[in-house]
Amino acid sequence: MDTARHTRLIKSFASALGFDYCGIARAVRLDDDAFRLERWLTAGMHGKMGYMENYFDLRIDPTRLVPGAKSVITLLLNYFPSESQAPGAPGIAKYAFGRDYHEVIREKLRVFQHRIREEIGEVAGRGFVDSAPVLERSWAVRSGLGWIGKNGNLLHPGAGSFFFIATLIVDLPLDYDDPFAKDFCGTCTRCIDACPTEAILPDKVVDGSRCISYFTIELKDLLIPGDMEGRFQDWMFGCDTCQDVCPWNRFSKPTLEEGFRALPEVLNFTTADWEVLTEEAFREIFRESPLKRSKFKGIQRNLAFISLPSANPPTENPPTR
């Protein structure tokens, strides 16, 4: 097989589809990651995200997902917005400004696989975007696309961390990129110091059960725990604090992906606008938005929580959105 030609084709397909970066690693079992994941789960840092405990063997072994897998292709797609929310608007994580990234990237992966089969032949493979037991960040590092920062995010040395990660596992041998071997976080602790709920621990461990994104998106309870009161700043859906303070994100540039263009309501809705919004209007406006994951009742719960009198203590240097 002409692995060099096939590799060039695959990277050209990725670029043509709008992906910002593409790296390729050999499909192997991730034994070191298996140990870290098991320790993280045993410590209960996944909170009530029970799905994290499922399919452990599939998470660490790509050949369990694609029999005969030879290569793991990792793709990065920038979502950094060109616009910011209006001052005083309830905070929404930047990844949720536009269309649901699952839908945007799934279509790209479908076309990607079609082109591979068209140009290379019958290649078995599966594409994933945050929807299956795949350790995307580990594969990104192995593919030479960056390192894992202290906040648990993948950091690309020339572009920061505002990227979605997609993975395509195929049974095609390719030329493999060198793993990213350096860690450029150094002694910086800005993300640890800025985390409103102290969810970022030493040694690149993030306690997911204390993350604002967990409380505002993943947690389906009627109430947010009282010990979190006053700690959310004004984050209503997700949180970008650890990314906003990261020095490497000074390299972030606005996305060129049309699907991630910010909804006007996300940018401009005030607290009063959210409070008078009906469930019917919510479903219509945000029918293609990641916000639908929290559902209308979840958004109402989050809004009520950050609107508590003690929920917005003054901060000397509030994060920039």
Observed structural traits:
disordered C terminus; oxidoreductase; cobalt; 4-stranded antiparallel sheet; 321 residues; alpha+beta; two-stranded parallel sheet
- The order of strands across the largest sheet is 1-2-7-4
- Shape category: globular
- Report the biggest beta sheet as strand number plus sense, adding barrel if it closes: 4 strands, antiparallel
Alpha-carbon Rg, integer: 20 Å
How far do the termini sit from each other?
48 Å
**Whole-number mean pLDDT:** 93
Count all strands and give the number: 10
Helix fraction bin: 25-40%
Low-confidence blocks of residues: 310-321
Count of distinct structural domains = 1
Helices, by number, come to 13
Strand content is: 5-15%
Structural class: alpha+beta
Protein name: Epoxyqueuosine reductase
Active site: 130 (proton donor)
InterPro entries: 4Fe4S_Fe-S-bd (IPR017896), 4Fe4S_Fe_S_CS (IPR017900), QueG (IPR004453), QueG_DUF1730 (IPR013542)
Binding site for [4Fe-4S] cluster 2: 195, 211, 239, 242
Short recap of the structure:
It is built from 13 helices and ten strands.
Q: Can you tell me about this structure?
A:
The protein is α+β, with helices and mostly antiparallel strands. It has one domain (1-312). 33% of the residues lie in helices and 12% in strands. The protein has 13 helices and 10 strands. The strands form 4 sheets. It has a 4-stranded antiparallel beta sheet, sandwiched between helices. A hairpin with a 3-residue loop joins strand 8 and strand 9 (205-206). Helix 1 packs antiparallel against helix 5. The longest helix has 19 residues, at 101-119. The protein is globular and about 65 Å long. The relative contact order is 0.17.
